Structure formats: structure tokens, C-alpha cells
């Protein structure tokens, strides 16, 4: 029988206490002030119960922001995974070891770039007068292409930048995962005359189900934190076409109104929704 | 009687002496680092090369300036001033001075601005926008009104006289608009924000006789606002690409790169247009006041004393001394010598021979003329940023086609304004 020791508790307790304080104090405070009408310019404020939460549901910007956030999540997570899987397989299938090494390095560059820098670079690239991406269109048609000013294309354009950063990075991960798989199932499938796409669809990817689910969750969480990218590229515009929940909460709290109680009620709702949705999805898709 | 007069003058001299001594004493006590939160300005960067001068003047204090672009600076100053207050000096502007002053986040500058630095020398328009509730709250580092800047070569080639009325402007913009040749009639601001698209829309609104509030009652939802919006949207058909969601950078960038015929913008544009480092249209540009009935958008940005980071009188005096030094005639003269047109704020400098020699008589005349039509277009209230930003969103939606009903947009803004006023009470 091992001797009982309190050493693990001694080492674990301080960081756990610090983590608990860092996590729970701001959360508790956000919940507390969401029931008040505190504003930055007025340090007083009084208890207003659920008024802030009720107001949210008649606020068209909030309802729009919920829609934009959901659309953003679906587009960026789906496209990132799609790009990662397709590119990962292509690299695994057609690239030599040397080519893989070089391309892996290249694919890692976008995600290493600071988000704000990447956003500025792409914003300029999409500029209708000087942008390198819009230039061919202007040359061919004679008309400028202003994708960030159109409510129909702005969100998709910003999403492409997000996918460029994360899709390429995830492609490297998918490639490395494929390299770790044992060769026997692939050989068996080939002996059974399985076509190439069938080998990946029915053999390789099912074997990678667990890590792919993990990647999906990582991207879902990362997509919730796209504030910097969207803020630099569109500031939530045109109008409110790319205004996500976190951006609207920040606007209400610090840019426009200083209504930190109202902003906190949004943050609390977002936290609750995220927790519930992620838990449900996790339970359903658990490998 | 004579003895009373003598006594009065003695007291006056004593007070003056005591004031001077206390001012010197407070200045001499300055130490440590004065922290400044600002937005990038060439004039402030120039100051950083003269830290030793301030150290000597203040008796040992230094300063550090953190820079953020305009929107981020607004958000950060608001967050900092209302919470931890780590900055001694804030860069504020005409749009948020009422909020900062009424919230007690900044101290009245007039109480701490040493008299010898001559606050009255600042351009009267800038003093006006720095004033709230009868007190001056910041010392200007930039400001002015609007100028119509136009391409003389393009207008001459098309046989068009520089427009002096709005109808002439619309006509000229339409005729000069030749996208196939890479020239656009005008450049406006579409990006949402009280200091962005709303700022450029307001001269039309005020020019058509619009008013924001009558007391606490919103009165802006009327014919003037509808007409102003229709005119603005109409002109946007001829605005350079990228300006639909762009602001100052996009519209001036398009003009300075030679792609815009006429631009009505804030006065610092004139300095950029004649500087070969920033402009491809040097020598091709003319200046006039905005066409009638447009009013010029009077504005001013400047430095104010934070209250939280300066809890006592001595630290407020140190911050006041820094602001006075930073905006002094000597430093303004340095900015003139460095050709920083947009950073000049003192009448003594702008009326000087050196100014006339550097920028020519045309620009001086245009500045004098535009001063006559410069007005405070925004609602001077702590609630203005909130209201202006909300209209900015609706206006951007109208510009980019997310919505098309102007009256519906104004009605939504009116409802918002009523809620805003009710909430503030």
C-alpha cells in the first residue's frame, strides 16, 4: 500500500485556486451586473431583474447578431474542416515526403500570422481600387469589385480569411494523422478493389473520427473568438451584416453606449447557449 | 480711499504671487511619468523628441504616449476613464467631450492651464468645441472645419467652374464622374459612426435647416433629414469604390491618389494634398469653402486631464503643465517648421508670415472663408456618441442597400433617441 501524501494537493491547490478566481469571479460579476442597469458614465445603477434580458429579444441588432454568429460558426467550421480534409488527403496521396515537408511549412504560416495583421493584409487585398485579388476582375469587366461593402458577400469574404488561416493549419494536422494510420486496412481495401475515394471515405476517415471531432470542437471554440478579424475587416458592417454577438456586446459596452449591464446580459446568454449547445453536441457525437 | 486701493492691490499682487509660486511649486514637484492615451498624430510624435525639454520645465517628469486609432482610442479612453484610470492625460474630441466632462472623467482644463501659455490664442472654433457647460476641457491638437478641395486640371478640362452651390456641386460631380478613366466624381464616407458617415452627412442636414433636439425632445425626424439623406445617397452614386464602407482614410486616399475630382473633407486634407510625400495631385488642387447651404463640420481633438490617475491638485497641475507645453506656441512653431499643417491650432501661427509663405495665399483665404460657415453640427450632449453611432448604422445600411426606406430609418432613430433620453433621466 502506497503511503498517503498531501504533496499533490499542496502543489495543485494554489493554481486551482488562481484558476477558479480568474474564471469564476468575472463570470459571477458579469451575471451580477446583468441584473442591474449599470452604465460606464454612471457608477450607481439599480437592480432591474430580467429587464436587460427581456429587452434583448426586442432588439433587432441582437437578433441579427445571433443569426450572424450562427451563420459564421456553420460556415467557418464546415469550410475549415472540408478544406483541411481535402488538402490533407491530397498531400498524403500525391506529395513526396520532401514536398510534404515544404508544404507543411507553407501551410503553417497563415496561422502563425497575428490575426490583426492577417486581417489588414486581406482587407487591402480586397480593396476595390488597389486590391490584388479584385484587380483581375476590374481589368476584365472594367468595374470595381467591392466584396466587403456588399451585405451579400461581406461575411463570406471574411470567412474565407478565417478558413485560409485555420483550414491550412488543420490540413497539416490531418496529413500527420493520416501518416500515423497503419497501412494494412488501406492494403486490404485495395485488394477488395475499393476506389481511392472509397478508401478514404470508408476506411481512413472513420479511423480518424475521434481526432476529427476534437478538431471540430477546437474550431467551433476558435470561431467564437473571431472578433479581431471581423472588427478589422468590416467593423460589423456593412450596416450590421457582419456584426456577431461578441462584437455587438463590445459595441454596447464600450464603443457606443457604455451600457455594460446590457452588454453583460448578452455575454451571459452567449455563455449559457454555448455551454448547452456544446454539451449536447459533445454527448451526441462522442466517439 | 487710497489705503483701500493700496490694500486691494496688495492683496491682488499677493494672490498673483501666491498663484505663480504655487504654480511653480506644483510644476517643480512633477516627477515620474505622465501617461498619455492618444491617437496617432505627427505633432505628438514630434513632441517625443523633446522629452528633455519637458523634464527640465517640469522639474523631472517625463511622459509616455500610447497610440490607438480613432475608434479604438474612443473605446479605450472610455473604458479606462470609467474604471481603473491609468492615464493622466486623455485625447478627447468634440464628440465625446460632453460625456467625459459630465461623467467627471476629466478635469476642467481652464483650472490647470497656466495663463502664460495663452489658451485664448487657439482658433475660436476649436475653443468652442472644447467647451462644455461653460468650461474648456481640452487643448486642441488638431481641428478646424471643412474645405471643398477640387482638381483644377479636371475641372478646367471639362470646362466646369468650381461649384459654389449644392446644385452646382451635384451637376459637376455627375459630369466629372468617369469610372472608365479611373476618375470618380466625389468621395464620401459610408462607414458607420458618429465621426464617420454621420460626420459627412450632418453638413447637409444642418444646411437644410435640421436640428437635433428641442430641449429633451428629438426634432430631427423631418424634411431636412429626409432631404439630406436623399442628397447624400444620390451623391454616393458617384463616390469612389471602397468609400461605401470607408471613412476618412478611404475617401482622402482615393483623392490623394488622383482618382477623385471633388472632395469635401476636414481641413487637414489641404495639408496632405500639397505634400508630395502623401499626394499625387500636388499643384493640381484648388480650395473653396463648402458649397452653400452646406455648413462646415467644426471639430477639434485635444488633450484633457484625467481625474482618476490625477487624484490630487498637484498631479492635475502637472498634467495641465504637460498639456500646456505640448500645445504651446513654441511646439506649434516646431509643427509649422515640420510642415504639419493639420496640427496647427493657434491663430498667431496661422496668421504668421511663415504660414503664408509655406502654404500660399489661396489656402489661407479658403481657411478664412470656411471659418465663416463652420458650425457645430452635432448634438452637444453626453448622449451624442450613442445617438450618432446608431444613425451611422442606419445610414450605412441605406448606403449599402440593406434597407431603402429613409423615413422608416429616421423613425427607428427617433424611437431610439426617446429611449436614450428616458434612460439618461
TrEMBL record, chain A:
Pfam families in alphabetical order: BPD_transp_1
Source superkingdom: Bacteria
Species assigned in the record: Shinella granuli
Domain named ABC transmembrane type-1: residues: 66-281
Membrane topology: Multi-pass membrane protein
UniProt key word rRNA processing: no
Protein name, UniProt field: Carbohydrate ABC transporter membrane protein 1 (CUT1 family)
InterPro entries, alphabetized: MetI-like (IPR000515), MetI-like_sf (IPR035906)
One of the GO biological process terms: transmembrane transport
Automatic annotation (TrEMBL), chain B:
Membrane spanning stretches: none
Cell compartment(s), UniProt: Periplasm
Pfam families for the chain: SBP_bac_1
Cellular component aspect of the GO annotation: periplasmic space
Position of the signal peptide: 1-27
Keywords per UniProt: Periplasm, Signal, Sugar transport, Transport
InterPro entries: Bact_solute-bd_prot1, SBP
Principal subcellular localisation of the protein: periplasm
Organism superkingdom: Bacteria
Family the entry assigns: Belongs to the bacterial solute-binding protein 1 family.
Protein name per its UniProtKB record: Multiple sugar transport system substrate-binding protein
Organism: Shinella granuli
Amino acid at each position: 500500500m502506497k503511503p498517503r501524501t498531501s504533496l499533490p494537493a499542496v502543489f495543485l491547490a494554489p493554481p486551482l485556486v488562481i484558476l477558479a478566481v480568474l474564471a469564476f469571479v468575472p463570470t459571477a460579476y458579469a451575471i451580477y451586473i446583468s441584473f442591474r442597469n449599470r452604465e460606464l458614465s454612471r457608477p450607481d445603477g439599480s437592480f432591474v431583474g430580467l429587464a436587460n434580458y427581456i429587452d434583448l429579444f426586442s432588439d433587432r441588432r441582437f437578433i441579427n447578431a445571433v443569426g450572424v454568429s450562427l451563420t459564421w460558426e456553420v460556415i467557418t467550421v464546415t469550410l475549415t474542416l472540408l478544406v483541411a480534409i481535402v488538402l490533407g488527403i491530397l498531400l498524403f496521396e500525391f506529395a513526396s515526403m520532401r514536398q510534404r515537408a515544404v508544404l507543411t511549412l507553407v501551410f503553417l504560416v497563415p496561422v502563425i500570422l497575428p490575426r490583426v495583421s492577417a486581417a489588414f493584409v486581406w482587407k487591402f487585398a480586397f480593396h476595390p481600387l488597389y486590391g490584388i485579388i479584385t484587380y483581375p476582375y476590374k481589368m476584365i469587366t472594367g468595374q470595381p469589385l467591392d466584396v466587403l461593402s456588399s451585405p451579400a458577400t461581406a461575411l463570406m469574404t471574411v470567412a474565407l480569411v478565417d478558413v485560409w488561416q485555420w483550414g491550412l493549419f488543420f490540413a497539416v494536422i490531418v496529413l500527420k494523422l493520416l501518416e500515423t494510420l497503419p497501412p494494412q486496412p488501406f492494403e486490404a481495401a485495395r485488394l477488395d478493389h475499393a476506389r481511392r475515394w472509397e478508401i478514404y471515405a470508408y476506411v481512413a476517415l472513420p479511423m480518424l473520427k475521434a481526432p476529427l471531432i476534437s478538431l471540430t470542437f477546437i474550431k467551433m471554440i476558435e470561431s467564437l473568438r473571431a472578433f479581431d478579424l471581423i472588427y478589422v475587416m468590416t467593423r460589423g458592417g456593412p450596416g450590421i451584416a457582419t456584426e456577431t454577438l461578441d462584437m455587438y456586446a463590445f459595441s454596447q459596452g464600450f464603443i457606443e453606449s457604455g451600457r455594460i449591464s446590457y452588454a453583460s446580459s448578452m455575454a451571459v446568454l452567449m455563455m449559457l447557449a454555448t455551454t448547452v449547445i456544446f454539451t449536447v453536441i459533445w454527448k451526441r457525437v462522442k466517439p | 480711499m487710497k489705503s483701500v486701493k493700496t490694500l486691494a492691490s496688495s492683496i491682488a499682487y499677493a494672490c498673483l504671487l501666491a498663484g505663480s509660486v504655487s504654480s511653480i511649486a506644483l510644476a517643480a514637484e512633477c516627477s515620474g511619468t505622465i501617461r498619455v492615451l492618444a491617437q496617432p498624430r505627427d505633432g505628438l510624435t514630434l513632441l517625443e523628441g523633446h522629452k528633455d525639454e519637458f523634464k527640465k520645465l517640469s522639474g523631472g517628469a517625463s511622459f509616455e504616449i500610447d497610440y490607438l486609432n480613432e475608434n479604438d482610442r474612443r473605446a479605450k479612453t472610455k473604458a479606462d476613464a470609467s474604471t481603473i484610470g491609468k492615464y493622466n492625460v486623455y485625447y478627447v474630441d468634440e464628440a465625446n467631450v460632453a460625456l467625459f466632462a459630465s461623467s467627471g472623467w476629466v478635469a476642467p482644463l481652464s483650472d490647470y492651464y497656466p495663463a502664460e501659455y495663452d489658451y485664448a490664442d487657439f482658433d475660436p472654433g476649436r475653443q468652442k468645441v472644447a467647451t462644455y457647460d461653460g468650461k474648456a476641457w481640452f487643448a486642441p491638437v488638431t481641428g478646424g472645419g471643412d474645405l471643398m478641395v477640387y482638381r483644377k486640371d479636371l475641372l478646367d478640362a471639362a470646362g466646369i467652374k468650381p461649384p459654389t452651390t449644392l446644385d452646382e456641386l451635384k451637376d459637376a460631380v455627375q459630369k466629372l464622374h468617369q469610372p472608365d478613366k479611373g476618375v470618380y466624381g466625389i468621395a464620401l464616407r459610408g462607414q458607420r459612426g458618429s465621426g464617420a458617415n454621420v460626420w459627412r452627412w450632418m453638413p447637409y442636414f444642418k444646411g437644410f435647416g435640421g436640428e437635433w433636439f428641442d430641449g429633451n425632445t428629438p426634432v430631427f425626424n423631418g424634411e431636412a433629414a429626409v432631404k439630406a439623406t436623399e442628397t447624400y445617397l444620390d451623391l454616393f452614386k458617384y463616390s469612389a469604390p471602397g468609400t461605401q464602407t470607408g471613412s476618412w482614410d478611404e475617401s482622402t486616399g482615393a483623392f490623394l491618389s488622383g482618382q477623385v475630382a471633388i472632395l469635401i473633407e476636414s481641413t487637414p486634407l489641404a495639408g496632405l494634398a500639397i505634400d508630395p510625400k502623401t499626394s499625387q495631385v500636388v499643384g493640381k488642387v484648388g480650395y473653396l469653402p463648402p458649397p452653400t447651404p452646406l455648413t462646415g463640420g467644426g471639430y477639434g481633438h485635444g488633450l484633457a486631464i484625467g481625474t482618476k490617475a490625477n487624484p490630487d491638485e498637484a498631479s492635475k497641475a502637472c498634467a495641465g503643465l504637460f498639456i500646456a507645453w505640448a500645445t504651446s506656441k513654441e511646439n506649434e512653431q516646431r509643427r509649422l517648421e515640420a510642415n504639419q499643417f493639420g496640427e496647427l491650432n493657434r491663430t498667431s501661427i496661422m496668421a504668421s508670415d511663415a504660414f503664408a509663405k509655406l502654404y500660399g495665399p489661396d489656402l489661407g483665404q479658403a481657411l478664412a472663408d470656411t471659418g465663416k460657415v463652420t458650425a457645430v453640427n452635432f448634438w452637444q450632449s453626453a448622449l451624442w456618441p450613442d445617438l450618432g453611432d446608431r444613425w451611422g448604422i442606419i445610414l450605412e445600411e441605406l448606403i449599402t442597400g440593406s434597407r431603402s426606406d429613409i423615413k422608416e430609418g429616421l423613425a427607428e432613430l427617433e424611437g431610439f433617441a426617446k429611449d436614450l433620453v428616458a434612460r439618461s433621466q
